[in-house]
Design a protein that fits this description.
heterodimer, A: about 200 residues, mainly alpha, 2 domains, two-stranded antiparallel ribbon, about 5% strand, B: about 210 residues, alpha/beta, Oxidized Rhodanese, domain 1, 5-stranded parallel sheet, 5 strands, about 40% helix, elongated
Chain lengths: ~200, ~210
């Protein structure tokens, strides 16, 4: 029964090796999807190339349905999965900062490592910038700890927030994703037309 | 007639979604007592030594909670500093447990080992990962901190340090403020030597995520 590590099927040392393998393959597939290229990533923000958002939503759907079905079959103990706690205001502010950085730099943290690893100079500069940002965050942290903890909601999940069953939320997310896929294609065509004018 | 790939994909998704919406996912997710796992964990050590806990308290270690499952009256008479009292009969009320973080190491305290061990099973079921029973409970705690055994004639340094540690922190650990009695009678004072900290078996909180 999954999660294998928490069920004690293998030790901490083995888990590091598995983490390395997963991490490398994550980076490899990011690169294969073309996410090591900042121009491709930045094109998302002009709706010229919606690969990023499609990949993200596909990942969300696969992970969500995967977890739900594995739970349904009794192969996964969902209570043992780590759920990042929600600090809504802290995450709104953090998300905005990350978003601005994404638009300016053309990378998000994972893809910048991929870009740097494949020898792209802008990727390396981005990684240095991210490290500098971490340093600044660490230095000013004592002054912003109230913001850091703002809007604490605990490890809440959508089913609990909306008081619906997990499966119904799953279906709603599927509908949302499909709407998103269709909408984004429509936007892409629209922007391509305006470009042509 | 050809079906577009997109239509096919979306229909599959919707079918998967509808199936999941009608399925009892939540029922499957609710925890049941897994006796095998529990039994396996029981056989491995789930005891915490009094000295180790005392060192944590003194070092103000972050990330651990002391949960006292004795009755309120007993708790009010004396208790370990910083401990929280939830009598074992009220452990099933989950709201009471909310203050104790699931990432924390939880030390369970009762008079002896029995009640704390029972509470241990409760907490394991509630999803607490690192739960330990204070070995010997309050009885042992009180005996070592209020009246530590004098080391025998041929004591080792370690025994002496343990004794002096018990003597020195006793008043604090008993929740009383009486200063330690002087102890110069029969114990030679040993020259300074760095006191070895007991190694903590603390698990780091694992942050998962992107």
């Amino acid at each position: 029964m999954a999660p294998f590590f928490k069920m004690g099927y293998f030790g901490e040392q083995t888990s590091f090796i598995i983490a390395l393998v997963l991490g490398v393959s994550f980076g490899f597939w990011l690169e294969r999807a073309g996410f090591g290229d900042s121009t491709k990533l930045a094109a998302q923000f002009y709706f010229k190339d919606n690969t990023v958002i499609k990949v993200m939503f596909t990942a969300i759907l696969v992970a969500m349905l995967g977890i739900m079905y594995l739970t349904l079959f009794g192969w996964l103990d969902i209570n043992m999965i780590y759920i990042n706690p929600t600090f809504i205001w802290a995450q709104v502010v953090g998300g905005l900062i990350l978003g601005v950085g994404f638009v300016i730099g053309g990378y998000c943290p994972g893809t910048s490592i991929v870009g740097a690893a494949t020898g792209r100079i802008d990727g390396m500069v981005f990684v240095l910038g991210a490290l500098f940002g971490m340093f600044v965050f660490g230095e000013i942290f004592p002054g912003i700890d109230t913001l850091f903890m703002a809007g604490d909601m605990g490890s809440i999940r959508l089913p609990e927030f909306f008081n619906l069953s997990t499966g119904v939320i799953g279906l709603l997310v599927v509908f949302m994703a499909i709407g998103m896929f269709l909408g984004i294609d429509w936007l892409e065509k629209k922007f391509a037309k305006e470009e042509a004018k | 007639m050809t079906i577009k790939t997109q239509t096919l994909g979306f229909s599959t998704l919707i079918i998967f979604g509808i199936i999941i919406a009608l399925s009892p996912v939540d029922k499957m997710a609710s925890q049941e007592i897994d006796f095998q796992t529990l039994a396996a964990e029981l056989s491995t050590g789930n005891y915490l030594q009094a000295d180790e806990l005392a060192h944590w308290i003194i070092d103000k270690e972050p990330g651990f909670s002391i949960l006292d499952v004795r009755s309120k009256e007993d708790f009010n008479k004396y208790h370990i500093p910083g401990s929280v009292n939830i009598p074992i009969s009220k452990l099933s009320e989950k709201e009471l447990l909310e203050d104790i973080g699931k990432d924390n190491i939880v030390a369970l305290v009762s008079n002896g080992n029995t009640k704390a061990s029972q509470a241990w099973i409760f907490l394991k079921q509630f999803g607490y990962a690192d739960v330990y029973v204070l070995e010997g409970g309050m009885n042992h705690w009180v005996s070592i901190f209020s009246n530590p055994n004098n080391p025998e004639d041929s004591y080792t340094d370690d025994e002496l340090f343990t004794y002096q540690f018990h003597k020195a922190v006793g008043p604090v650990m008993m929740g009383t403020t009486i200063a330690a009695e002087s102890e110069s009678d029969n114990i030679p004072v040993i020259q300074k030597k760095p006191v070895k900290r007991i190694k903590k078996k603390k698990k780091k909180k694992i942050d998962e995520g992107c």
